[in-house]
Amino acid sequence: MRSVRNQIISIAGFDPSGGAGILADIKTFEQIGVYGFGVVTSVTYQNDQKFDGGLWLDFKEITAQFQLLAERWKFGFAKIGFVESADMLRKIVIMLKNHNPEIKIIWDPIMETSSGVLIHESDFVDEAADVIANLYMVTPNMEEAKILGLVDMISKTNVLVTGGQIEESLSTDILYSDGKTFRFDAKKLENQDKHGSGCVMSAAITAFLSMGNSIEASCEKAKEYTLQFLLSSPELLGFHYAIGINE
To answer: 234 CB contacts (<8 Å, ≥6 apart)?
Structure first.
């Protein structure tokens, strides 16, 4: 089994537009300088503006994808995105921990799509609560943090809450880690929303962590990467090329 520096895996949904999900993760990984592997959890029917549902893969199909990769490579970092249920999240985490007990798992909790379609109901929160303690980090936006229960999460794992607005002119992310709080500010952009920006942010954090950066440095670098992604195009789909990266 190979364990090569800077190889990480994304376990997420397939977005045909390439703006979000596993395609966005792989683009981000490669641009930052890590090799990205992928396991698909769902095939969605969407573009940058509209979400029409999708097809969930069962755990047997997810395992079949991962198993052959795990025979060849040992992963130290994994990002989980779009999952069908809290039970599926739990199964995926167990699968990853069985592969490597020391693996650091970053979960981007997608409670609704960027077009406003609700994915998970309230029972998801209760069922996912015990899984969070087995994660290295969770990266909810402000609304997701409220739904999942911020106080409960930060008692169990590292949490980065994205998209806050403490000051009118700034977009602020807050990292809760090891009893400390870190604030990351960037100028608030008008009319620069991007489909999949949350996926890009969490993927960038995972990539920078895998390169040996601290959790604070990884969040700071990922915020800068995401800012450049937001500025890359006037459309809802952003570009990853030509984004300056400093390890």
So the answer is: none
